[in-house]
Amino acid sequence: MINKKLALKVKVKHLAEESRIIRTEERKNNGDTREWLYLHRVGVVRSAARATHIAYAFAKGVSLRKVERYPDQIPTEIWKMVAAMVKKYSGKTEQEYLNWLGSSMAE
Predict the structure, then answer these.
(1) pTM here?
(2) How far apart are the C-alpha atoms of 33 and 49, rounded to whole Å?
(3) What string of H, E and C letters represents the secondary structure of the chain?
(4) Are 78 and 54 in contact (CB under 8 A)?
(5) Cα distances (angstroms) measured from residue 105 to each of 53, 81, 86, 94, 102
(6) Could you list the pLDDT tens digit for every one of the 107 residues in the chain?
(7) CA 93, CA 20: separation in Å to the nearest integer?
(8) Residue 83: closest CA among 68, 67, 96
């Protein structure tokens, strides 16, 4: 049986490393290139990392409150990415995901 949860773990690590690499390159560049790198890191990579981290928490059975301080303030775009990753990687049913969400929001 394939451990798809491991794929989420790898993805979390990959996104963290991508952010570190971009930050290093930001320091080496100036002007438009530096700004573009910054906006990519903050706008794209950060959102993907947050969504992946939430999906990984679900796959591990960790409460949402343990990984997010303000889960009620998570943007809709993040939830869409989380739902897609949960469906692809978790191996759990949609009902389990909804139950996890409900119990996490109630805490």
Answers:
(1) 0.88
(2) 22
(3) CCCHHHHHHHHHHHHHHHHHHHHHHHHHCCHHHHHHHHHHHHHHHHHHHHHHHHHHHHHHCCCHHHHCCCHHHCCHHHHHHHHHHHHHHHCCCHHHHHHHHHHHHHC
(4) yes
(5) 17, 18, 17, 16, 5
(6) 778 889 999 999 999 999 999 999 999 999 999 999 999 999 999 999 999 999 999 999 899 999 999 888 999 999 999 999 999 988 888 889 988 888 776 66
(7) 34
(8) 96
